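Q: Could you fold this chain for me?
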Amino acid sequence: MILLCMLALASAAFVAWPFIRFAPDPLTKETGLLEALEERDRAVAALRELEFDHRSGKVVDDDYRSLVRTLRVRAAEALKHVDAHA
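A: Sure. Below is the predicted structure, expressed as structure tokens.
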């Protein structure tokens, strides 16, 4: 009976171990990665908002072309920073 209890406890510990142990968080190790991810999110959100404003007629074609170019460059630079940290 004791052997059966020991086997059950060992099995439970073996199954539960991946859930109990703590993996290091990559964002805590690399401080620049968090800022790069935030910049990427801001750039993509700005592109989405510009696209919406252009489709709804709030932004004319000439302004859209100049703004989308700079926002795409900003998003590309942010993605480069994310890739450099990942």
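A (continued): The two ends are 51 Å apart (CA to CA).
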